[in-house]
Amino acid sequence: MTVAIWLQMILLFCGIFSAVGGFVGVNIGTALSNLPSAVNTVAILRAQQITHVRLFDADAHMLNALSNTGIEVMVSVTNEEVLGIGESPSTAAAWVNKNVAAYVPSTNITAICVGSEVFTSIPHAAPVLVPAMNYLYRALVASDLNHRVKVSTPHSMGVVPRPFPPSTATFNTTWNSTMYQILQFLRNTDSFYMLNAYPYYEYVKSNGIFPLEYALFKPLSSVKQIVDPNTLFRYNSMFDALVDATYNSIAALNFSGIPVVVTETGWPRLGGANEPDATAENAKTYINNLIRRVSNDSGPPSQLTIPINTYIYELFDEDKRPGPVSERNWGVIFANGTTVYDLSLSTSESLDKNSSTAFCVAKSGVDDSSLRDGLNWACGPGQANCAAIQQGRPCYVPNTLRNHASYAFNDYYQRMRSSGGTCDFSGAATITTIDPSYGSCRFTGSLNSSTGRLFPAPALGPIGPSSGVSKNLVQFGTVVAFVVTVFLVNANYLVA
Ligand SMILES: *[C@@H]1O[C@H](CO)[C@@H](O)[C@H](O)[C@H]1NC(C)=O
Ligand SMILES: *[C@@H]1O[C@H](CO)[C@@H](O)[C@H](O)[C@H]1NC(C)=O
Ligand SMILES: *[C@@H]1O[C@H](CO)[C@@H](O)[C@H](O)[C@H]1NC(C)=O
Ligand SMILES: *[C@@H]1O[C@H](CO)[C@@H](O)[C@H](O)[C@H]1NC(C)=O
Ligand SMILES: *[C@@H]1O[C@H](CO)[C@@H](O)[C@H](O)[C@H]1NC(C)=O
Ligand SMILES: *[C@@H]1O[C@H](CO)[C@@H](O)[C@H](O)[C@H]1NC(C)=O
Ligand SMILES: *[C@@H]1O[C@H](CO)[C@@H](O)[C@H](O)[C@H]1NC(C)=O
Ligand SMILES: *[C@@H]1O[C@H](CO)[C@@H](O)[C@H](O)[C@H]1NC(C)=O
User: Fold this and answer.
1) Cis omega (within 30 of 0) on the bond before 314?
2) What are the X8 domain coordinates in residue numbering (predicted)?
3) Does any domain span residue 305?
4) Ligand 4 atom 6 nearest Cα
């Protein structure tokens, strides 16, 4: 599947779920030797139908190029700028005027990220972090932009020393008072907590305690269910556990109602000899399953109703970054706009490679009345878009029941399979990998379809019941952490 289709899906669920959240955006780092121009970068974003981006600075060329695109943009105060802004309200005001007020509303700037992982990367600036956020906020108020532009600061998981199990996670007490003030600020300004969450690093750090499948959102074998012993919440992915660890750390300081947005997550597709898990296969699996997970629109177990809006790290490989090989290989799109690895959203492993070519059409040998019933149902209660098979439209000819039924069956299937719709129609329909499109008639989901859109597949389904019993306690430091459990009982009983 092409990245265009993949990203079309992102756009699509952004559209579908925009009212309640659940979007996937991308981070755009610029430390690459063949960095496309801002205009070309935005052309790539638009071609891939990316709707949310985060910049690590407030580059004027990018902000201009992003104007009138509808793309939502988070800009960043760099770590170098945090001290100056935290020490001077007028510096903060000048920053907002130059980098935000000058572009809004034509560039849809929705947030300012104040620094990047300040506690863990420039701890000496931590004392001025809250003043910096306050000064920026006041400058936004002065420009009457505080309702459309939020202020927050991205944290690494490093601020939560022991994230597993999530129920006992707390922030490192070294930063008690600053974290308290940050949360107060976020709550008072109706903002959100920015979290950089990398199951890749947590997995590597864990030295094999957690299965790789868990980091990659793959179904866990029935003997390796991961359950929080205090809440009995079952965690299907480390991603969910990290988000919940953050919610619980916030709750431990007595705050609630502050949504967590994942400002960075991803997986490197290439690493050095000592980075065996940085592979293209793992990266592809992680990103695809992440998109599926987020598009499902549910929150982590402790916050089921709050979607986990997420920004993928990152758009391009940054070959100029120092550090291990993996540092330079997080990109999902090459500078020439082509996909780095195949990306797809599919309902099952077996359909993985062919999901772009799974079409639902009328089965041969089926009688006309079954086809008519199916057609009527698809275009009626099934809510397929049957405009293209109306007289004068591209798929009207050949004007046969079979052709029209195929078009309608397929449109229904492409729209509904993410929510459980099947290709059946009382036996009148069948799946084919051959694109039924012809001439100017493009079937929904066709790579060349201009109107048809593929829909995101459902997130990982429930894990089946398991059997057997035994409990292995895993120790993290002095805290009894996750229980990796083999249940005697039906594991479903533990799902909250
Ligand atoms: C900008 O983004 C906000 C937040 O999602 C949205 O409500 C608004 O409609 C967008 N504005 C434009 C002009 O696209
Ligand atoms: C908390 O942060 C401080 C300062 O970085 C560090 O020295 C300490 O080890 C951290 N505590 C834990 C439990 O990780
Ligand atoms: C941080 O807060 C916790 C919980 O309220 C408390 O036990 C701890 O003593 C505090 N630490 C510092 C350094 O203030
Ligand atoms: C949170 O609230 C509880 C109950 O009101 C209180 O006992 C506890 O000390 C508070 N914790 C903090 C960190 O403020
Ligand atoms: C795009 O760039 C990548 C990496 O440099 C290269 O492998 C690929 O062939 C290029 N694709 C096109 C169409 O130029
Ligand atoms: C996927 O596509 C390959 C090659 O096009 C084909 O051989 C294989 O049977 C297909 N698999 C499924 C599940 O359709
Ligand atoms: C899609 O378009 C490309 C280029 O226009 C063409 O080569 C290809 O055959 C088309 N595919 C289908 C299924 O029509
Ligand atoms: C969404 O994900 C949650 C948690 O993984 C799961 O419980 C739920 O069934 C999923 N919903 C859908 C519609 O796939």
Assistant:
1) yes
2) 358-443
3) yes
4) 254
Question: Which ligand is in closest contact with the Cα of 349?
Answer: 6
Q: Over 111-179, what HEC string results?
A: EEEECCCHHHHCHHHHHHHHHHHHHHHHHHHHCCCCCCCEEECEEEHHHCCCCCCHHHCCCCHHHHHHH
Give me the active site residues, please. 117, 264
Q: Does a structural domain hold residue 82?
A: yes
Q: How large is the C-alpha radius of gyration of the chain?
A: 24
Q: Under a CB-based contact definition with an 8 Å cutoff, are residues 327 and 307 in contact?
A: no
Amino acid at 52: H
In this structure, are 192 and 271 located in the same domain? Answer: yes
Residue 262 and residue 362 in one domain: no
Q: Are strands 193-196 and 154-156 parallel, antiparallel or unpaired?
A: parallel
Q: Which atom of ligand 1 is nearest to the CA of 105?
A: 13
- Which tokens hold the place of 101? 């007020």
Distance CA 440, CA 461 (A): 37
User: Can you list the alpha helix ranges (DSSP code H) found in 274-342?
Assistant: 280-295
364 in the same domain as 274: no
Domain range holding 202? 3-345
Please tell me whether residues 264 and 400 are part of one structural domain: no
Tokens of 36: 């496309």
| Same domain membership, residue 359 and residue 270 | no
pLDDT tens-digit series, residues 143-202: 999 999 999 999 999 999 999 999 999 999 999 999 999 999 999 999 999 999 999 999
- 275-284 pLDDT, tens digit per residue, is 999 999 999 9
* Ligand 8 pocket, CB under 6 A: 236, 296, 298, 458-460, 462
Asked whether residue 406 is domain-assigned, the answer is yes
Number of domains in the chain: 2
pTM above 0.85, yes or no: no
d(CA 426, CA 415): 18
Q: Do 229 and 376 belong to one domain?
A: no
Burial label, 213 (beta-carbon count in 10 A; 0-12, 13-18, 19+): middle
With residue 243 as reference, give the H or E element that holds it: helix 238-252
Q: Is the CB of 476 under 6 A from ligand 2?
A: no
Burial of 301 (0-12, 13-18, 19+ CB in 10 A): buried
